[in-house]
Write a structure and sequence with these properties.
- The protein is mainly α.
- It has a domain at about 15-170: 3-Layer(aba) Sandwich (Rossmann fold), CATH 3.40.50.1240.
- Helices cover about 45% and strands about 5% of the residues.
- It has helices at about 15, 30-45, 60-70, 95-105, 105-115, 155-160, 175-185, 190-215, and strands at about 55, 80.
- A two-stranded parallel sheet has the order 1-2.
- Helix 3 links the parallel strand 1 and strand 2.
- Helix 2 packs across helix 3 and helix 7 packs across helix 8 (about 190-215).
- The longest helix is centred in the last third of the chain and has 25 residues, at about 190-215.
- The radius of gyration is 22 Å and the shape is extended.
């Protein structure tokens, strides 16, 4: 059986202080470290062998995973992707959540926190919390850093972006060109990606069938 284990980072300092955190690097509280340790113990109890580890660029996520790996005594390389960062809170970053609810109302704040296409007010590029001030994002490349599109993981995934390499499907230049052709025809979306993957996997399944038939295996194995 295969498993996908999703773990939220442990309580951070700004979680405790009820501040909007977003992309700011704040570390775990002592309670957050205990939560991460408990997560590692639960995984260990289930005796699940983990093949790949993934994390966002954020310190609280990285340190949560480090504690889990310490518990498991498993120190495989971690693939980090900034695209896995949590929602960016724009100009709300560092502000108290309760105070923002009093100022804007709980309904509006809920929309800003949970909506896929209605972002919080943008962050001024002069803010000390702006991603351009963080060396972790220096090698991402040129992109409109003030746009909501690049800050919200859920919105990007729904628009067909996949930050983590797929280790389990056939890949190569032909497949990449084919995928690009599908995107050109049907647009960039997760539906197109699924359609493309199904098409490629269908080709591979058919090819595998004829390869196995060429070995003249017994009918019990190939129908």
């Amino acid at each position: 059986m295969s498993y996908l284990i999703l773990v939220r980072h442990g309580q951070s300092v700004w979680n405790l202080e009820k501040k909007f955190t977003g992309w700011v690097d704040v570390d775990l509280t002592e309670n957050g470290k205990l939560e991460a340790k408990k997560s590692g113990q639960l995984i260990k109890k289930e005796q699940i062998e983990i093949n790949h580890y993934f994390s966002s660029f954020q310190l609280r996520a990285k340190n949560t995973l480090k504690i889990i790996q310490d518990e498991l005594k498993d120190f495989k390389k971690v693939d980090s992707a900034w695209e896995l960062n949590e929602r960016h809170y724009g100009s709300f970053t560092g502000l108290n959540k309760d105070e923002m609810i009093k100022k804007h109302g709980s309904k509006q704040v809920h929309i800003w926190r949970r909506s896929f296409d209605i972002p919080p007010p943008p962050m001024n590029s002069e803010s000390p919390y702006h991603p351009s001030k963080n060396k972790n994002y220096a090698n991402i490349g040129v992109f409109p850093i003030d746009t909501f599109y690049h800050f919200d993981t859920g919105f990007r995934v729904l628009n067909g972006e996949y930050p983590i390499k797929d280790f389990w499907v056939v890949s190569g230049i032909f497949v990449d060109y084919l995928e690009a052709f599908f995107f050109y025809l049907f647009g960039v979306s997760w539906k197109t990606h699924v359609f493309h993957s199904s098409f490629v996997n269908g080709i591979m399944a058919t090819a595998t069938y004829f390869v196995l038939r060429s070995f003249k295996l017994k009918k019990n194995f190939v129908t």
